[in-house]
Model the fold of this input.
Amino acid sequence: MTREEVEVESYLSTETMMKELQTLLKELPYVYRLINDNNPIITQITADSREVKAGALFCCVKGYTVDGHDFAKEAYAQGAVALLVEREVLDVPIVQIKVNDVFRVLSFLANALYSYPTNDMHMIGITGTNGKTSVTYILEEIFKQNQARTALIGTIQMKIGEKSYPIKNTTPEPSYLFNSFRAMKEAGVDHCMMEVSSHALEEGRIRGIDIDIAVFTNLTQDHLDYHPTMTDYRLAKERLFQQLGNRYDPQYPKYAIINGDDPYADYFIRATSQPVVTYGLTKTSDLYASDIKLSATKTQFTLAGMVSDVTITSRLIGRFNVYNMLAAAATALKSGVPMSDIKAALESIPGVKGRFQSVQTTRDYSVIVDYAHTPDSLKNVLETVQTFTKGKIYCVVGCGGDRDKTKRPLMAHVGETYSDMTILTSDNPRTEEPEAIIKDMEQGLETTDYVIEVDRKQAIHRAIDLAGPDDVILIAGKGHETYQIIGRETYPFDDYQVAHDYLEQRLGD
Ligand SMILES: CC(=O)N[C@H]1[C@@H](OP(=O)(O)OP(=O)(O)OC[C@H]2O[C@@H](n3ccc(=O)[nH]c3=O)[C@H](O)[C@@H]2O)O[C@H](CO)[C@@H](O)[C@@H]1O[C@H](C)C(=O)N[C@@H](C)C(=O)N[C@H](CCC(=O)O)C(=O)O
Ligand SMILES: Nc1ncnc2c1ncn2[C@@H]1O[C@H](COP(=O)(O)OP(=O)(O)OP(=O)(O)O)[C@@H](O)[C@H]1O
Ligand SMILES: N[C@H](CCC[C@H](N)C(=O)O)C(=O)O
Ligand SMILES: [Mg+2]
Done:
């Protein structure tokens, strides 16, 4: 089952929340009108009729594809005792709370039902085009080193302590989110790191979360299928920094941690009223890295600025990972973690699944699986590969269907510019024709010296066949994913496994 198709079977918290509707409404700072006035006990808040249990307040959300109001009857049949609506639903004889914006009120009520679970947790929200998942994992390692009880939410999974739960979106919708925060509190979690996608910010999925530290990694092109322009994309991301609020609390200050080297840094600095800490590769940033030494197996640099100089040797590869480590280190420092714990964690973290992950092989060339699925991340990763490759670089790359079309030629162009041979293939074509996606990619190519292999497995095999001593193969775009979506079907597929199995088979030859 895929991340996109995953059924999050039941909500994580099993504690029965019980609040009278009137109690919840008393806290609601929005204008509403009651239809079929009544005061049932609410035990669940959900916007998905398929999740409804007895005692639910079902929130009717107008989505991009369907209108939740059309599922109100189904929710009632399953035991919903109240509805949150934007228009009256006829023939459903339960109390209906009519408001102007269901989504906004839904996150407020979910927060109230679960007794504001994030107010006394250290909440870190990370946004940016690339690096969010990586930074959450680095932070998890640091806080664990500091004996904290951690949870993380993001692209790969929801993790509470050592337990892993499947996740549908990088940043889930509010009823699931607040229930999960409740589950975290039940598990004694005190530090939660969450990726905050621009979609989530645009759709208000994180409203009501008491974010303590907001982190900005970088902003480059992606998701222009969803956000009309780069400005809209940036403005969505800026909302995380506005959510830090205006009140300065000297005892528990909130912070914005910002990549000072990013061309958009000033926008994010101006978006917040809270103290800002910048990080980067020059002395102009509050925390900076110098003396960077990159290799295929380790990265070394000196952390300086707001701390006394300390040398870090990490297994996270590439200059972009220096940025990720800086973001995590600045966040941890402002969370009160001593430098000794930060150093220990940066030096012990083995890597993040599907991010610059080396396929274990005894061959004299190497295969790297990486989640680069934007022009900038592909460029960064290929530049990193260039720094240590003695032979040729083979880049296996495709682009996702039903996603930003304008990044396709750019990614192909990056492939041809920074590698010796680009093998264009399929990523998750979804409902688009795989060949048509590849045609879009070809528009960005200047030479004719490339290979097309629509079948991703064959493309990986082809790259391995072509590679010789000292060469490096980069398989980009799908990283940790264990599936491929073709049409509306999902098939098992794992870049790492495909490469590994073929290498094993060849070794056996
Ligand atoms: C474009 C987008 O953001 N879509 C999200 C949106 O879907 P939608 O508006 O189409 O929802 P819909 O299907 O019309 O349903 C409307 C309402 O009816 C309800 N419903 C629907 C069917 C039913 O039988 N019963 C029922 O009650 C739904 O639960 C929903 O509340 O609301 C859904 C429920 O919250 C999300 O799962 C869905 O994410 C889809 C799966 C998606 O692909 N989103 C991607 C683009 C996304 O959000 N990606 C970012 C990461 C991007 C990145 O940085 O890489 C992410 O945070 O994951
Ligand atoms: N700081 C960075 N700057 C540029 N590229 C990066 C950075 N960190 C990671 N990358 C590249 O981006 C890819 C995705 O990294 P990661 O999963 O951490 O990002 P993300 O922001 O969580 O992505 P998504 O939006 O898909 O959730 C990596 O595989 C790597 O190629
Ligand atoms: N969160 C991103 C992931 C893209 C990963 C890539 N493999 C693809 O399917 O396009 C998205 O949904 O746009
Ligand atoms: Mg991510």
